[in-house]
Each structure stands twice: as structure tokens, then as C-alpha cells.
């Protein structure tokens, strides 16, 4: 059964860093575009970053551009999100999702993880 499991969330001070991992099982990760999404308390879920099947193409939301880096290790069936210079407004539950079509849109993702909480606070 296809499954995505996020890890690496936690409490970090403003300006700190975290690296999130998204481990896939039950399907071949390299065949899917992978996206990271987040949902802050009281807000709608939003896209953060996407990475193509090969890893050769990435994109980021304006709010995280220059601070977050998405990468993937297809041999390890894992995708990462390196988050630097974290701000309180980055506080959210972070989800990874897999997309067969490559569009990386929230409504079109095929598989979702259950999320990992990131809290940025002093």
C-alpha cells in the first residue's frame, strides 16, 4: 500500500534550521513529482515547494524562496526539505505528497503523508 511518512519536525527558535524528510514505501518514488505543503493554524493548506521526478526542476513559493531547499534521493525513496532562517510564520503542519501527473497541485496529488509539525518560537 502506498505510504508517505514525514519526519524531522519540532520546535526551533527563529533563525534556526530544520530538515524534513519524506520517506516513501509501497510505490516507486522516482516516478512521481513530490511536493511539500503546509497548513498553519486557522489557515488553508498552501504549496511550499515541488521537485520533479529526476530532481532537475524545483520551484518554491515566494514566502520560502531563498530559505528552503527541496531535494530528493530516489535510491533511498526519500525527499527532503531543508529549512533555514526559519520565521514564526513558518509554523505549520508540513505535508509531503506525490503526484503522478507532474502538475504538483494540491487538488491533484495522488498520495499524502500525515504531516509533521514545525513550530518556530522563542
Can you tell me about this structure?
This protein has 122 residues and is an all-beta fold. Helices cover 0% and strands 48% of the residues. It contains no helices and 11 strands. It has strands spanning 3-7, 10-12, 18-25, 33-39, 46-51, 58-60, 68-73, 78-83, 92-99, 111-112, 116-120. The strands form 2 sheets. Strands 2, 4, 5, 6, 9, 10 and 11 form a 7-stranded mixed beta sheet that branches. Strands 1-3-8-7 form a 4-stranded antiparallel beta sheet, with no helix packed on it. The radius of gyration is 13 Å and the shape is globular. 32% of the residues are buried. The mean pLDDT is 96.
Report the strand count. Answer: 11
Low-confidence stretches: none
Q: Any idea what the radius of gyration is?
A: 13 Å
Query: H/E order of the elements?
Result: EEEEEEEEEEE
The class by helix and strand makeup works out as mainly beta
Backbone shape: globular
Tell me the helix content: under 10%
Q: What percentage of amino acids are in beta strands? A: over 45%
Number of helices: 0
Largest sheet: 7 strands, mixed
Q: How many angstroms separate the termini?
A: 40 Å
Residue-averaged pLDDT, rounded?
A: 96
Amino acid at each position: 500500500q502506498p505510504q508517505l511518512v514525514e519526519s524531522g519536525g519540532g520546535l526551533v527558535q527563529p533563525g534556526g534550521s530544520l530538515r524534513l524528510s519524506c520517506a516513501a514505501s509501497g510505490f516507486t518514488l522516482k516516478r512521481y513529482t513530490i511536493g511539500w505543503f503546509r497548513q498553519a493554524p486557522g489557515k488553508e493548506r498552501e504549496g511550499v515547494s515541488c521537485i520533479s521526478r529526476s530532481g532537475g526542476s524545483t520551484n518554491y513559493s515566494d514566502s520560502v524562496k531563498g530559505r528552503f531547499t527541496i531535494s530528493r534521493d530516489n535510491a533511498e525513496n526519500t525527499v527532503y526539505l531543508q529549512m533555514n532562517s526559519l520565521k514564526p510564520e513558518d509554523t505549520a503542519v508540513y505535508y509531503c505528497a506525490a503526484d503522478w501527473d507532474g502538475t504538483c497541485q494540491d487538488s491533484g496529488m495522488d498520495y499524502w503523508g500525515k504531516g509533521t509539525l514545525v513550530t518556530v518560537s522563542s
